[in-house]
Amino acid sequence: MKRGxxxxxxxxxxxxxxxxxxxxxxxxxxxxxxxxxxxxQCSWFLDAARMMQADIQEVTADPxxxxxxxxxxxxxxxxxxxxxxxxADTLVLxxxxxxxxxxxxHGFCTGEFxxxxxxxGTISRRxxxxxxxxxxxxxxxxxxxxxxxxxxxxxxxxAPILPEWKDITEKGWxxxxxxxxxxxxxxxxxxxxxxxxxxVEWGTSVKFGAPERDIKxxxxxxxxxxxxxxxxxxxxxxxxxxxxxxxxxxxxEFVKPxxxxxxxxxxxxxxxxxxxxxxxxxxYVKKLEANFPLWMKTSGIYEYPMICYINGFDxxxxxxxxxxxxxxxxxxxxxxxADTPRELMLSAFVLGAARDVKSAWWLKVDADAxxxxxxxxxxxxxxxFPRQAWRCDIxxxxxxxxxxxxxxxxxxxLNVLDDWWAAxxxxxxLFPADIxxxxxxxxxxxRSYVCLHNAEFVRKYAEACGGRLPVPSHDTxxxxxxxxxxxKWGSANFRGVMGS
Length: 500
Fold this sequence. Notes:
About 35% of the residues lie in helices and about 25% in strands. By secondary structure, it is an alpha/beta fold. The chain folds into two domains: about 5-220, Alpha-Beta Complex (Spore Coat Polysaccharide Biosynthesis Protein SpsA, Chain A), CATH 3.90.550.10; about 275-500, Spore Coat Polysaccharide Biosynthesis Protein SpsA, Chain A, CATH 3.90.550. Strands 3-2-1-4-7-6-8 form a seven-stranded mixed beta sheet, sandwiched between helices. Helix 1 (about 15-25) crosses helix 9, helix 14 packs across helix 16 and helix 15 (about 415-425) packs across helix 17. The radius of gyration is 29 Å and the shape is elongated. It starts with a strand and ends with a strand.
């Protein structure tokens, strides 16, 4: 028996949400998907759906019929024996094979809504409103008990409920019984026909659902995808993941709000001038692989494009980098004159970033930086910089000392930098001469396992060092340049937010 997923689109307002839903589906399901369309469709939208292996099927029918009425007749258009329909405003979080099994067993499936009851005020009013067209069904529908929702439903083509569902939905629409005639029509018929009512985790309400449950599908009903509800954080993460996986031509259209006022407000909150930069070699790849999924759940990281400098791999196609390839631009990094792997990799954060970062700001995140704030609270970690950070040229974690990580001709990093600065400017040293190179010299500075940079500042001092850092330390070098060059720098305690 052929199984498949159905989506439906009419107009432009739901295009972005539908693509996000399809993107989430493809993380857990590789079977056939059909996008049913009514009326003209944007070519970029169809191209993006095809990129995620969705077939496009145009429905040639009366365009005057509202989408919610057409939902109750999808059996007329489905190419599958067993179909599962997903609203555009759903997010799939787990495999869905079990749902198909239930559909094949029972013929028709829909979902329980948030523990609501048919005797509750809202649902009972909806049921009684359909008394205008099917008065004989009202009492049984009220006695059914559980309220339903048709954001997710499934059917076999021979399910006996389907012809009457189509009929009752259209009658309810024409009699103006309810603005959601498909859902109430379905509720009226459940006492009469065989079916499986899926548990709430198959369509957890973004507003009324319990986030701690074992959620399989989230339903962002009523355009609540970017509301201040905990489950909205998941939608934003998937939105940004899809955005950064699309080719530039499609991304340009995807990031438009497309008549979605709430999405428009959310997009205005996002900065467009930041790039996340990290670097990895085989020694650190396992640490990055463990941390990367957490970064993709961290507000302040997942929203932005990413560069990852790589060294010691068989190019960007190395299978050890599969976990990050779709999300980051992988750039091979080499510095033949580097004395150690440490110097090689840390130089990428000055010389490489100066060359490759095109945004006004960039955020360094070390491969071994792990989000920590409060655990995975409300489905999201948060990395936020204070307002004063954006008035600095470099801003990182608080630190109170400099320690040389390797000998520089037997001299401390700070003495080497003083000599380098004096050779450029003739200015006197900042630190005492002859600090023992192994000493931890106390002074105010920053460290950079998570660090915000002004890109122009970095370009200036990448050029100043002539192709090789005076000391093999990205943050020591840039902090020193900021201090001596009269640039603003700042720090805050990030250790409770990101551990290293």
